[in-house]
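Attaching the record inline, Q. Sequence:
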Amino acid sequence: MSKMSKIVEFALEKKHPKYFDGVSEARKHLEKRSLEEDEPYKIPKRIYHTKVESKDLFGCQMVLFNDVEDSERLVIYLHGGIYVNEIVLPHITFCDKLAKNANACVYAPIYPLAPNHTYEETYGIVEKLYKQLLTIDKPITIMGDSAGGGLAVAFCEYLAVNDLPQPENLIGISPWIDISMSGDYDEVEFDPIGGIDSLREMGKAWAGDLDLKDYRVSPLFGDVTKLPKTTLFVGTHEVLYSDMQKFYKKLTDSDVDVELNIGEGMNHVYPIYPLVPESKEAFKHIVDVILNQD
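Structure, as predicted:
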């Protein structure tokens, strides 16, 4: 664990959001987000490595990095935020760097969020996007972080259920794979975020009428046998660590081509923190996977 990662962990602990402090605070946050969620996302003004633009596709705002015609690969990036919070600058800068280094056109849907929306609308949007990208005949990677990582995994399970082709790669950065939070989390050494009850409350809003253990919202419980090459990242200092260990075993037992990268002493979604040395190593590995150079 590097000195910089310790600094980041300290900062995360100090900036601990109140909505992780229990069901009551989570509900307050959901109420607040219900008034903000449908506002259009504005791309931050800064210098980017690639062409970055906003487009409306399939009734959804999407941020695109790189031109499709000039790119050799395609990436669908699903951002995290407990299915409630919008995309943030670290996601944007990560996608920008990824598009440049992997020579890829990256699509980042600003997908509908809870509590105003449920998983169902987003599935329709991502499916239409994916089917369109299949017609371009370039290697596709589906990936995401946290909630978006869980969505990426679940969507690939959904593709299998519906007899649709899998992408070349599935990459999950600390994917949230059980929104019911039904596991045993007592052995987690330390997590500056935490909030099991709060997470479950956010998950309920996203699931709508679905059972919280339905694979479409909790892919830990789905059929994984047809998943593509899968690359996972998780830190030992995050509450989702034990779920990821279960999921990795399930994939290996099902003979899925899977790799689990464990960040010792690292926090949730550590690969997207740009100043942490461990994140730079993880980023390079992600690029190598997409380039098929791992």
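The mean pLDDT is 91. The helical segments are 3-14, 23-36, 89-101, 119-134, 147-161, 196-207, 241-253, 277-290.

More tomorrow.
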